[in-house]
Write a structure and sequence with these properties.
Keywords: ATP-binding, Kinase, Nucleotide-binding, Serine/threonine-protein kinase, Transferase. This protein is an alpha+beta fold and 410 residues long. It has helices at residues 17-24, 27-34, 51-54, 59-62, 116-125, 161-164, 170-189, 283-299, 309-320, 354-361, 367-380, 391-395, 398-406; strands at residues 74-75, 79-88, 91-98, 104-110, 137-142, 148-155, 192-193, 202-206, 217-219, 229-231, 241-247, 254-255. It has a domain at 15-159 and 210-237: Phosphorylase Kinase, domain 1 (2-Layer Sandwich). The structure holds adenosine-5'-triphosphate.
Amino acid sequence: MKQVSHDNSSLGTCASASFVLFLSECLPAAASIATIVSSDSCELGSDEYDIDEYAEPYKGYVKGLYYPVEIGEELDEKYVVEHKLGHGGFSTVWMARDKTTSKLVALKIGVGRATETEIAMQTELGTSVANLLALQAVFNLQGKDEQCHRVLVYPLLGPSLQSCLGKMPMQYRMNAAKQLLCAIASLHEKGIVHRDLNSANVLWHATTPEYSKPAKTLSLPSSSWKPGVRTLPLEFPTSLVKKDISLGDLGLAIKAGTSVSMKVQSPAAYCAPERFHDVNPSYASDVWSFMCLFAELYTGVIPFPGPGGKMVSMYIVLGLGPMPATWEGKYNGGGEADSRWYDPRTTTEPVRTIQGLLERTRPEADQTERNLVESVLMKGFCYLPEQRISAAALMTDPAFNAVMDKYGVS
Ligand SMILES: Nc1ncnc2c1ncn2[C@@H]1O[C@H](COP(=O)(O)OP(=O)(O)OP(=O)(O)O)[C@@H](O)[C@H]1O
């Protein structure tokens, strides 16, 4: 489940003419996203959840995409499933105890063979990448109609960045930013583009909470080819979350220079603008996504929010000014492009610029600190990928390191 927290605090109060102009076509979407704004809590009581709404879609089981699992079930004669951890488009993830070691692990049960890329990348990289969730083992399960589900065994980690970012102290958030940057720089050094950097794919380390069986489960109907349940993930109280993170989900990773048919990234809020314009993912597009995450970690909000490429592009233009005129006619990010995005006369909306964002969200930070953060962000939020700072250069960037120093991150 990916949730995106949107910063719509200024809607309606700071709208200038150009802002209203752009927003007018997007307001219905803006209103509807307000209703799916994520909570920043990791401690929602299970009664507040609706399994049907937040667990993996039931039709995924009907189609034989997800492998049905029961709590207490033994898999591969080794792992006993104790709880649920999450799901994505390509998997369900369960907490299980390894009978041979008595340790808890995370089992990522793939949709068919959709996890092959992740397995191949993980196998190639081994433990060579700093702060990357490292694969421990792989096994197969036979699914509906003899379909093979690949299962990836990972160390058990805590909640994703997105699920409780707002509650974490700044030192933890800046430590997460530094560790994430190390992971990306390390991946790039090995020639790999992650391609899917977002706050659901970065996990905090955490102490496992006291837990019992999931409080609420929905059994799959008896007509299912195999018994199984849908349920909500284990909740991690914020107090058990540690300051370290690991980057996960190499499911879409590619070798740098690979051409892919799906250029854009989802959620669109982390997607580099050139990818909306038919350009392949690259090291530079990973750096744009990192900058979105860094901004989110620093400010608590996503800098260019939106459920799709059109709204995200609009916010990018309001924040950074017009996109390169050479991109006009190449937009392929969902919906129709707006010619004003490429018009050199289009101006930024002060409240939506990086400076405006920092003033709004971090009024307590002094001007020197805000200038440092702005300078870091603007090295990544360049339209032309070739002008964007590299992850390795950012590691030694004086402004980035000054921000880290300020929050005691070494
Ligand atoms: N090792 C782990 N420890 C704890 N929770 C995990 C672990 N791995 C994954 N999860 C949880 O399961 C969720 C889904 O995992 P992941 O993003 O890897 O799946 P996916 O099917 O590849 O998703 P996507 O559709 O985003 O590509 C994560 O957001 C996280 O909450």
